[in-house]
TrEMBL record:
<protein>
    <submittedName>
        <fullName>Conjugal transfer protein TraR</fullName>
    </submittedName>
</protein>
<dbReference type="InterPro" id="IPR000962">
    <property type="entry name" value="Znf_DskA_TraR"/>
</dbReference>
<dbReference type="Pfam" id="PF01258">
    <property type="entry name" value="zf-dskA_traR"/>
</dbReference>
<keyword id="KW-0479">Metal-binding</keyword>
<dbReference type="GO" id="GO:1900378">
    <property type="term" value="P:positive regulation of secondary metabolite biosynthetic process"/>
</dbReference>
<keyword id="KW-0862">Zinc</keyword>
<dbReference type="GO" id="GO:0008270">
    <property type="term" value="F:zinc ion binding"/>
</dbReference>
<dbReference type="InterPro" id="IPR020458">
    <property type="entry name" value="Znf_DskA_TraR_CS"/>
</dbReference>
<feature type="zinc finger region" description="dksA C4-type">
    <location>
        <begin position="37"/>
        <end position="61"/>
    </location>
</feature>
<feature type="domain" description="Zinc finger DksA/TraR C4-type">
    <location>
        <begin position="36"/>
        <end position="66"/>
    </location>
</feature>
<keyword id="KW-0863">Zinc-finger</keyword>
């Protein structure tokens, strides 16, 4: 039972973080891009900063966030596997 509750809590936390990130991105869409990822602290490539104004995550963290969001929505992660 505790494992299920822990998983639910992790999902709630992830949803909360994703909502916060979405709001931050909407607020900063026309603002300056961050130079460091707000998730992992790694440097965000300059070409990504220029391509996506207001970007706040590196490519890898963004990919992970999008996969987790799909899993939470029930879309699974199979679509992300390479063929």
């Amino acid at each position: 039972m505790a494992d299920v509750l822990d998983q639910l809590q992790e999902q709630e936390d992830l949803i909360h973080r994703l909502h916060i990130q979405a709001v931050r991105q909407q607020l900063s869409v026309k603002g300056e891009s961050l130079t460091r990822c707000e998730c992992c602290g790694n440097r965000i490539q300059e070409r990504r900063q220029k391509a996506i104004p207001g970007v706040s995550t590196c490519t890898e963290c963004q990919r992970v966030l999008e996969i987790r969001e799909k899993i939470i929505r029930g879309e699974g992660w199979e679509a992300e596997k390479p063929m």
